[in-house]
Amino acid sequence: MYYNGYSISLVGILCSCSVLFRCIFVSYLFLNSDYSFYLCSRQNEQKREIMPRVKKPAKVKEPIRLRMKELADGSKSLYLDIYRNGKRSYEYLKMYIIPETDDNARKRNAATMMAANTIKSRRIIELTNGEAGIKRADNQETILLLDWMNTYMENQQKRGKKDGHQIKVAIQILKDYAGERVTMDEVDKTFCQGYIDYLLTEYRPQGKPVSKFTAQNYYRVLNGALNAAVRADVIKLNPFTKIGNSDKIHRPESKREYMTIEELRALIATPMKNEAVKQAYLFSCFCGLRISDIIGLKWGNVYADNGQYRLEVVMQKTKEPIYLPLSPEALRWMPERGEKMAEDAVFDLPSTTHINILLKPWAKAAGIDKRFSFHTARHTFATMMLTLGADLYTTSKLLGHTDVKMTQVYAKIINRKKDEAVNLVNGLFD
After folding, report:
1. Residue 66 and residue 354: Cα distance in Å, rounded?
2. Are 319 and 374 a contacting pair, CB within 8 Å?
3. Residue 5 covered by a domain
């Protein structure tokens, strides 16, 4: 029993020693790991003290960003947001992202974005090159198209041309079409063809397309400005010359009303309330002067040269001098000079408005049922000269045309008259 009791006590002692040993071992591990953590922390702190913190690089803001503007039809208009030196401006690219309803639309949008980003990159290069003072290889400064258009307008005004309003409108059209940052170097065949397409399809100043006559005016403005740029060595070639004639905008052939010889005889025989207006009108029928030139005609412009009376005037429209021989029929309708001085007007006329009021009742009384104006007299002179056998070049000079092509319109009228005359025999001998 005692032995058994002793053996029981020994087992208990051994168990107690085992538990104590485990406690000492765990405490050692804990203390050792805590110390290791402490050492690691200190090492990290020392590393931080030795190696300073590296800051993330700041994002560089682009001077030009490509942005989109939602439109009512669901498409998006692309434009460049330009911010430099505290100033913000926008350049609308006339490019659109359309709703991607199919694969073709997605491909088109991808191509549009590529083209827009190309323009953006080009603008950034232009901007940074300008700020860095980098010039073109040919040592010429880049000239903006709109700057040149304004220069062209000023030069036209100095020359006495009266197309300033048309040029101003064309400048605004170019702004709407291509923005304000287009350079003369970028005005190529594609640009010019796009301008023509824009005039014919997209330009709607009053919500509807303009007439072909109006579109041709603004086409001529840009074409004239580019021709002037060639003469000034700003560009080497007018890109409009690379466009086929059929793709250009041509002025529609206007109907030129004129009187036949029989109608003119009837008009001469018909009285008019204002004799001076009648004389001036018939004088134009036999010399071809415009109403503006007849109003400005002075007795000092009339002179005799070896028995031949002539006019020497600067035409109001073209500012070109003209030396015009006067036929006896034209002299017949000139008033007597009397005691009038060289600076006195040949014809004592009322305002152009009053003149136009008098013309229509006079024509109606003469049995002339067609569109009738003072300019009809000039058309009558031109067609009469060609009908009576005058050549095209001579008629052109008599009219004061700067280009014989302008006179060819009347030649077409005469050709139609010839065709009608020839066909009068049709059916007579069946």
Report:
1. 59
2. no
3. no
